[in-house]
Amino acid sequence: MSLSDLDEPVARANERALDLLFTSDPVLIDVRPAVAVLPGMTRDTVLTSGPPLPWPEYTGGQREGIIGGVLYEGLASSREEAVRLLDRGEVRVGGCHDFGCVGSLAGITTASMPVLVVEDSASGGRGFCTLFEGAAPDRLNYGVYNAGVQRNLEFLAEVVGPLLSRVVRSAGSGIRLRPIMERALRQGDELHSRNAAASGLFLRAVLPALLDLDAAQARVLISYLGADDYFFLRPAMAASKVMADRMYGAEGSTIVTAMAFSCREFGIRVAGLGPRWFRGPLPEIETARLLPGRTRDDIEPMGGESLITEVCGLGAFAQAAAFPLESYQGGPDAMVRRNLEMYEITAGEHPAFKIPFLGYRGTPAGIDVARVAATGITPALDVGIAGRGGGQIGAGSFRAPLRPFTDAWAAFRSQAATPTPTS
Amino acid sequence: MSLSDLDEPVARANERALDLLFTSDPVLIDVRPAVAVLPGMTRDTVLTSGPPLPWPEYTGGQREGIIGGVLYEGLASSREEAVRLLDRGEVRVGGCHDFGCVGSLAGITTASMPVLVVEDSASGGRGFCTLFEGAAPDRLNYGVYNAGVQRNLEFLAEVVGPLLSRVVRSAGSGIRLRPIMERALRQGDELHSRNAAASGLFLRAVLPALLDLDAAQARVLISYLGADDYFFLRPAMAASKVMADRMYGAEGSTIVTAMAFSCREFGIRVAGLGPRWFRGPLPEIETARLLPGRTRDDIEPMGGESLITEVCGLGAFAQAAAFPLESYQGGPDAMVRRNLEMYEITAGEHPAFKIPFLGYRGTPAGIDVARVAATGITPALDVGIAGRGGGQIGAGSFRAPLRPFTDAWAAFRSQAATPTPTS
């Protein structure tokens, strides 16, 4: 079967995928403990970022994060016991994507952690993501677990999660996220590395409901939502997860539905190829800014699934909406060039996510493995950078590896060449 | 006396002017009725925009606005009586700038209207501006006075003003405006035609104090502050007024301290030339977007002093921070070109108002009449557009006329050539 034979049905399938992506309407409807809402989640499961690996293959900060998750859940009372339970498989390690959620950096998600519940009002599908841990350099998702991290996670679970749940539920039909995302792109955010405007817009959206709390509770929540400008990354991720997952409904499509990495591998999934991961080496740095005194040798990959935003035409695919990031994305000209390049590997332009600097052109959306394979251009990725020994040490613009895309395209063609039982 | 003899002392004076501008720290400290705080204000004074004219010379919407102001204050019970009082001078018409305030569009400011009280913490100087009337096309400042306009002005005076005053005063030492302005420039505002981010940031800044109101009052104020994205223009104007006025302290400086226009004339003031207005024809449109069905023939100038933002390196001097305005400012490339051009006529770059797209370069600040005269480049101006018969019909980018700048420069040179009594 030649490429040209594939062209028309694939184009139709991709149109269908884009239609599903573009008509999604993600709504934050609740904030609940992971075990209560994630399909398949159990008390003795620890989820983490990336195409899943056998437990022994997780190293460094990602491994530390998983161990921290076991301790945080009280499944073990010492590091050694936690490792033993993991070694014996008595605590199961899973990939976030297989449980309907996405994880930031190491993406550690355990049973009692509150997750944002985002529902697509068009389909009823759901996506989930844990809450932002705050700006402290020590965070479980950056491979650190200590008394301070534990206290902060408890505060999220016992105070922030329940309050946010009350506020979101009292807002009638929830908080529609897409209007916030659309506006934030006009206010300097690309909704991956920059969420300053969106975090403020979210606060405004919940304000009426916030006034129903008593003043002390309202102050706690306002302080959490407003203290840093990163809160909204998590709603953006959960929203992107549910939008991207809808595209699995487009059989025969070559559009990417997930990109994620672990400490070892980068992987993608494709609408027409189901849950199978196509794996390759880790993304490479194009440009980055690190904390003073840190060098590229200090960088340690610990995983990351916030790339789900790029899957939906955000993040690096909307860099020209976020010039405030220019100091670590190579300057405005490079950002514009990189953003324009992404149109070469996407099947469409988002009808609602728009870039003012490009004359309100829709963001490049729907990464097409066929186009990536044909051009050799791989997706640009905006990501936070973890350092050896744990903690965030910077942020930068990365490039996905080519192999997962060419492998997926090859698998797609060979699948298309195999008559299915019904044909 | 030749130009070169002037060069050094003028450069020093201009540095001093910029230093005063750049070290200003405008703080919103209260919201009070105009008569209580504007120096020289009386119950039978109506203030309006632009270099002052004798009453009979005000025409069209600006004249209607002044008459509306007389009626709103209850100084007359009919339009005819109002005109009679104005004709006889029993109601006095004044220019906003002479009373420490600036007016948006027609700039009608009367005794009982609440004004934002902005104080420069560095000098104790004050600037004032009325509150945004809301997004309704019928507004007093757009030349319309009717029962709806009256009700809205009463709501501002009786409800919004007092509530905002309570909130601002309860915030301890007031609300510092400069940090909000600095951040807004990173979120797509230029703080003249676009104030979407700044309005949200202002709401966040007063939120802690807002929680002290009862919930019903808080809801009223939140609804006013958040209903439209234009609230912050007025704080930005009052802040710009007090920042610009500080530059009068720089004797011998050729930096512009005010730009304003009436229905007839455009005028400027210069730091080294005191309160004298240098007048010229009205600004000309470079590019504009009008409401559907409206043409340039429908445009009616009714005055405007929001150009005080351009005096401080904002508005058109920060267009490249506000690409969301591209659809009516000629597209992103034109906006960048126009913004860069402004560096040719300014004496410095603002150390805190920065443009991400220009690599965080400071905005061009301190319009120098000598540079304008030498280059023939006049200031670009972002302005709202009023229509014949009243109401807003669009917005656009305008250019100031050259004459006031060349006249001011000539006056400056001839003043410098005349020995003063003390020399």
Automatic annotation (TrEMBL), chains A, B:
Stored SUPFAM superfamilies: NAD(P)-binding Rossmann-fold domains
Pfam families to which the protein is assigned, alphabetical: AllG (PF06545)
Segments crossing the lipid bilayer: none
Official protein name in the record: YahG/YlbE-like protein
